[in-house]
Please model this.
Amino acid sequence: MLWEVQQMYSIGDKIRVTIFGQSHAEAIGTVIDGLPAGMEINMDKISRFMQRRMPGKNRYSTARKESDVPEIISGVVNGKTCGAPVCAVIKNSDTKSGDYDNLRYVPRPGHADYAAYMKYGGNNDIRGGGQFSGRMTAPLCFAGAVCMQLLEEKGISIGAHIERIHGVCDERFDAVKVSAEQLKIISGKEFPVISDEISEKMKAEIEKARMDCDSVGGIIECAVVGLEPGAGGALFSGMEGAISKAIFAIPAVKGIEFGAGFEASEMYGSENNDSFYFDGDTVKTTANNHGGILGGISSGMPVIFRAAIKPTPSIAKEQQSVDLRTKTAEMLTVKGRHDPCIVPRAVPCVEAAAAIAIINILGE
Amino acid sequence: MLWEVQQMYSIGDKIRVTIFGQSHAEAIGTVIDGLPAGMEINMDKISRFMQRRMPGKNRYSTARKESDVPEIISGVVNGKTCGAPVCAVIKNSDTKSGDYDNLRYVPRPGHADYAAYMKYGGNNDIRGGGQFSGRMTAPLCFAGAVCMQLLEEKGISIGAHIERIHGVCDERFDAVKVSAEQLKIISGKEFPVISDEISEKMKAEIEKARMDCDSVGGIIECAVVGLEPGAGGALFSGMEGAISKAIFAIPAVKGIEFGAGFEASEMYGSENNDSFYFDGDTVKTTANNHGGILGGISSGMPVIFRAAIKPTPSIAKEQQSVDLRTKTAEMLTVKGRHDPCIVPRAVPCVEAAAAIAIINILGE
Amino acid sequence: MLWEVQQMYSIGDKIRVTIFGQSHAEAIGTVIDGLPAGMEINMDKISRFMQRRMPGKNRYSTARKESDVPEIISGVVNGKTCGAPVCAVIKNSDTKSGDYDNLRYVPRPGHADYAAYMKYGGNNDIRGGGQFSGRMTAPLCFAGAVCMQLLEEKGISIGAHIERIHGVCDERFDAVKVSAEQLKIISGKEFPVISDEISEKMKAEIEKARMDCDSVGGIIECAVVGLEPGAGGALFSGMEGAISKAIFAIPAVKGIEFGAGFEASEMYGSENNDSFYFDGDTVKTTANNHGGILGGISSGMPVIFRAAIKPTPSIAKEQQSVDLRTKTAEMLTVKGRHDPCIVPRAVPCVEAAAAIAIINILGE
Amino acid sequence: MLWEVQQMYSIGDKIRVTIFGQSHAEAIGTVIDGLPAGMEINMDKISRFMQRRMPGKNRYSTARKESDVPEIISGVVNGKTCGAPVCAVIKNSDTKSGDYDNLRYVPRPGHADYAAYMKYGGNNDIRGGGQFSGRMTAPLCFAGAVCMQLLEEKGISIGAHIERIHGVCDERFDAVKVSAEQLKIISGKEFPVISDEISEKMKAEIEKARMDCDSVGGIIECAVVGLEPGAGGALFSGMEGAISKAIFAIPAVKGIEFGAGFEASEMYGSENNDSFYFDGDTVKTTANNHGGILGGISSGMPVIFRAAIKPTPSIAKEQQSVDLRTKTAEMLTVKGRHDPCIVPRAVPCVEAAAAIAIINILGE
Model:
């Protein structure tokens, strides 16, 4: 029996977010510890935020909506935080656990099944993917929305868009000029891209994958604007590390890059270095290859990062697996309705994870 | 006066590594807390490891060698750990602090200077880049080498190579077949690549940059072999997040990807999912797009990741900056001898950071 | 607005226990993170344990019993832990929040009211004492009972008794001979003392206080047996510090001492030092003034400590207070039914807190 | 081989203090992480503070003085903190490790020897008590002195006195009226008591113990004045728990109590509750049985606590022990010069530990 790693399901030393639950447990939820007392929790805003990640919000928006309504059971009195931890619970009403026992021994390719089986000695909750389910991003989004409210009070906005899906690319943020207004506009879109004309092409890629019983992934680009210079720090306190740790908590993320990122490896120093200039009393850089982070510390320029999202591992196509009991090969068909592309729904998750990371980086 | 962020200079809940010092302080060093007692510290091995990151080890290997010799001042008795934290100190003997005061107010593009100025209200140690200097990776390598020793006792090997420099690419690891033996061979190379024939081309890129008073960056690929399935966990305990946090502690890293990484965003799920099969009693996957990590947990396949290294920001070319006092534009020429490419020296740093992350992920 | 302190409502790096809720919130509860997977949660045992702290369990045992039934909403599948955090929720069904607004501005002497008002700028949940209520020990006991189950699997038993109430003393544990069997017997008692003859005298003290509209406190003595030598450590990792931190989480605890404790200040070194001898292959000490802890590390002898419990601050007597709005003196009478002595109910809380501390101290 | 506990040698999430070294290692020292940048380190004040714990400062003040001079090797530039961790090293120049091997197998009663042997499998540094030595309080005092400087800038003073030695009692602090001025006066005394007339009696007790080849302990009382109401919090964030954890890091502490402490167990609630009144605009209490802490939160009244110090375990009298190799009884005489009472030297250690705890409790 392997002993668990420390701090598994919590993040943050200042605003500590703990997430609990499994896909088909009675509930999932989050405990947010360290919020200032007297903060008004804007449930409307939180609901709107959480709806952006809800399943089937455009075409199939009825059936499962109720199941994602968070209920605050502690920490809030008359709409304001009281200093005790805020616990929000989301009931898992629409669970059909069915015959998951087969799955226990025939792990789905691309899923956590096999790795979790080994970690937990077969005791993990296999129903709906257990704590590895994308469903766990619902409490993440709740916690992120609360943190985002705190950030907004400090003039900091976070917004993301689909940078590409299966090779079809949106334009990128203008890393110098991206503004809170632009982020707000994008977050209001049903399909969050900068160039709306690209959305149909992206949707066509998704639809094609669905028709092929397959799935596609993509890249999400996120911007943080309004962050004063001076947040973060050297070595293990760097912003990149803190943001990465939070972003990789989202299932399906397999890469992250800041500013020019991997492309910086193709540039000369003289190209990659961003020149300083004074815009009034404020120091800015002419370009923003550094993605708003220098030496792990915010520079005052927009923080820009991109996260790679792998194609949904659940596909209707038959796949090769094994039976862990009999040690034989086994063909597997993953049943049920699955998103052929989770990138659109992952957009608010990226924003939420970034918000949790950044509120914990801030100095004051 | 901004208050500092928590846990700035330490990482790990199990083997906690704290790094202290600045480039031109009297010393830099590390405290490693939580090592098992009775462990023999192999100083020869550690020295060899640290020499891989030493400045000028090939052509200019004499002058500064001494300054990187770590002195263990606590925690080790007769060559064995005694249970008290191991503190290793590296004296900064060869510091020429000179006239850094100019630099304080004219920040170098691509460096932490401006961001640190804002964070610390101008109190940061500007000499040699202070705690933002690449020199801080010397104690990181010491700590990593100690962790690597622990990992090796458990049959886990870590090794990296230069995957590309300024667009010139080495072949990648065979993500399925990469072995401890291969990693050992590469780590013994003066220029750590898989295909030795590529090394001259890479060196030519570096030399060209040097001649142009410029610099180049690249990508480092790292493999961890021998890791049992079951390490890591869901959400905030995932391996990707833990490794990223450590890797981004290395100055100049601007991106990281695991397995297929950003390329997964171009693939269909049916391409990206790795099929399971039994190799004797061991479950393996036919390909390794998942980079040895499923659901944040090790799958037993090699862990594969790549880190993007930006071009050295210190270049001899004149650059545009500002004077923070006068709020005017100012041209800047960074003096001194600087590596036109730090990618080769960053290879052991990536291994060291990975070792620190992984020893803290292990279950037992 | 004061910013909250880190790690407020959680403890433990290995088995992390987070407690949430307020006395009159919708619910109180706990998230236990880091439990090994596959552990059978013995709900009967947990219920029996929690009943020991239930209000009015002897004479008034009906009315509020239901409200303390914990409901596990995550982390347990078919009675076994699955590796995800265990979240248990206790509904606050029997809350009569009534007119607490008066209390907000007229703080009760001996309570957290005034201090919390200042900390939270008046936003704290004043109903029933909010998160400062003794009610918060219900989830503490749940978490402690789960940890105790883990400890028992390792042969470690924890048990406490009322050492004194308002000057009426029980005998103390024989610090050398106290056994798991003795602890089990005491925990089964309706009034947990060693010498049953003393219980009537203690009850008489409580009754007298009740008749006088007053309250009394006492001392609880706790023993941990079966702990192998070698747990804990020097400096900040000492057992005394870890146990103290947990025990002081119980409202009303104002002191703690280990082994001879404060009496050691009256002894000569030659009296206080415990001689070693071999009992078969096991090293023991002839006396146990060190309370089973030497240099912060378990010696293998029973761990013995005593916690001082102040008299219940809620008394029916009229008391002098102030009105925080008018800045005038104000007489206050605390209404409602209150325990004239919480020492008996605090006994399992002490055991629970000790269990949480000790499971986090253990090496493996 | 037991695995070490997490966070062994560090404390604090805001100002993190890590202590390293062993009594006879090359050095002992501390890393202080999280200090604000630009803070002037007053080395004179720190030296004066550390001299209060120096061995033999009154009668035998020559020989070992040099060995306790801390050398700051990082984090300070031109006398000011630069934002990087402050590392201070104290060389162990005067070590005579001699024949400690005998001690390894014949543990000294009252010392950590046996427990450490079991924890570390015999690998612990037995020379001079290793990391369990009272010598480790030298870096503790350094770190405490730095924290105290920060506290003083906020108007917070900490001071302690010898409340009793072997039954000879000083008067106690007036828990309501104790002032920064009084604390300053006491800290300037060669023998820190309130009533100077008692000091000769205490010294006589110590001298008597010395003549008898024995030792005595005592109680130290500490006051913190100037702390605003609102620091600390409920449950695991309580001030008592945080202070206790730090105080128990001092070897030889076996108990702690706040305010009325254990005596509260003899009082009625109506006696123990402290009435509120307005002193101008400030809420105060008429008495201070609560020791300045209500519900784990500072009330604005002086924080008062007492720590029990056991008699020095090193005594010249022959004692009964065992030989761990032969499993036979063995008589032991502890050689060397030892303090017959460490209470006077522990006074600044208590202040230092309290300072570290309190700086980490403060909200801002």
Q: What stands out?
A: The first helix of chain C runs from residue 43 to 51. Chain C touches chain A through 57 residues (CB under 8 Å). The first strand of chain C starts at residue 10 and ends at 11. DSSP finds nine helices and 18 strands in chain C.
